[in-house]
Amino acid sequence: MISVTSKSIDYAGKNLVSCGCSSNANTVRSYAARVNSKVWGRRGGHGAANFICCKNRTIQCRVSTMKTAEPTVNGGTHAIQGIPTGLDLKSYSETPISPSKLFEVVADDLQTLNKNLQSIVGAENPVLMSAAEQIFSAGGKRMRPALVFLVSRATAELLGLKDLTVKHRRLAEIIEMIHTASLIHDDVLDESDLRRGKETVHQMFGTRVAVLAGDFMFAQSSWYLANLENIEVIKLISQVIKDFASGEIKQASSLFDCDVELDEYLIKSYYKTASLIAASTKGAAIFSGADRNITEKMFEYGKNLGLSFQVVDDILDFTQSAEQLGKPAGTDLAKGNLTAPVIFALEKEPKLRDIIESEFSETSSLDEAIKLVKSCGGIERAQELAKEKADLAIQSLQGLPPSIFRLALEDMVAYNLQRIA
């Protein structure tokens, strides 16, 4: 039996770490679906846009008795009511979700965002814009602003709003600027040469320009944030910037520390990844005028999606090639950053501790450590952790009415798990 347990830790009123994974969970969701159809057709704009669903769908599935699986807008499967725990990784590999279509329902919003970002950043300083553009054009999927738009539209429908507000759109721009600034600074701190297969900003322009570019984007985003004139959102996003620094400090202070616990890893992952996503989704709901119950559920959705994403990224660092990752495989471990797969493997293999504490002083010791992580069940247990957080994210969407935007939010969770299926 594979199990993961950890105590519950409360941070700023949010239960961040509550983990109880089990390979023989009480409720196991297992289904396989085959969808024979065209992708949803799209006519016109958003909100009340006319979406048509092509006929001739053939669905074959096996699910728990709690619900019926249905096809989603992106080609995955979606259950309308009563999401149980135990999402099945295998099901996602059988019904692949296309990344290119994942945010198709907010494509116009993202196109507008891209234009506005160039105007906001480039108008101030062309050199800084060139540096930021290195990140903007490096193949990112604009996941965070897309989530802002999806939650904005899903909650706007709940409240009867016909379209997004200016504040919704500005929030998405602020979130992307903050994310971009954090990537630029992360690459400087990590001394990374590549980002998504392209040279990093500090490699192209030097460390001084990279640091200034990141600082500028943080400052610019803060100025636009203040102009939103919503104290709840201002506090929410300001906390994110603080969390980034806290996450970097926690990571730097625990390098090569084989006694690091799962709780600490999850808190660090919240600071560095999930905090911004949670703030994005909650802020979007706030600007739709949703009540506190909905805004908190959107926070929980973003938090758990972000944690699941980080765990999946940490798994891929061991399972994908350098070409797939856009950076050398095993980079985090080589630098002493111990992630979920390593933490789990350390519980079973004492030799792994010796190798890590030696800081890979011997030739080929890094390759040996990677093999030990894989052979000691570290990958499988990390997969269970990613699935548990995905379950919690899905459950948080139950307060939203059925819509193409809610379907896309669920597909985002499924797409993340599909990366390790």
Descriptive notes:
The protein is mainly alpha-helical. It has helices at 89-94, 99-102, 107-122, 126-136, 143-159, 166-190, 201-205, 207-226, 231-252, 262-287, 292-319, 322-325, 331-334, 340-346, 350-357, 365-375, 378-395, 404-418, and strands at residues 3-5, 9-11, 14-17, 20-22, 41-43, 50-52, 69-71, 77-79, 194-195, 198-199. The protein is 59% helix and 7% strand. The strands form five sheets. Strands 1-4 form a two-stranded antiparallel ribbon. α4 crosses α8 (207-226) and α11 packs antiparallel against α17. 46% of the residues are buried. Residues 1-86 have low confidence and may be disordered.
Q: What is the structure about, briefly put?
A:
With 421 residues, the chain is mainly α. Helix content is 59%, strand content 7%.
What descriptive keywords fit this protein?
two-stranded antiparallel ribbon; disordered N terminus; 10 strands; 59% helix; mainly alpha
Please write out the topology.
Blueprint: E1 3-5, E2 9-11, E3 14-17, E4 20-22, E5 41-43, E6 50-52, E7 69-71, E8 77-79, H1 89-94, H2 99-102, H3 107-122, H4 126-136, H5 143-159, H6 166-190, E9 194-195, E10 198-199, H7 201-205, H8 207-226, H9 231-252, H10 262-287, H11 292-319, H12 322-325, H13 331-334, H14 340-346, H15 350-357, H16 365-375, H17 378-395, H18 404-418
Antiparallel strand pairs: 1-4, 2-3, 5-6, 7-8, 9-10
Helix pairs in contact: 3-6, 4-8, 5-6, 5-10, 5-18, 6-8, 6-9, 6-10, 8-9, 9-10, 10-11, 11-17, 11-18, 14-16, 14-17, 17-18
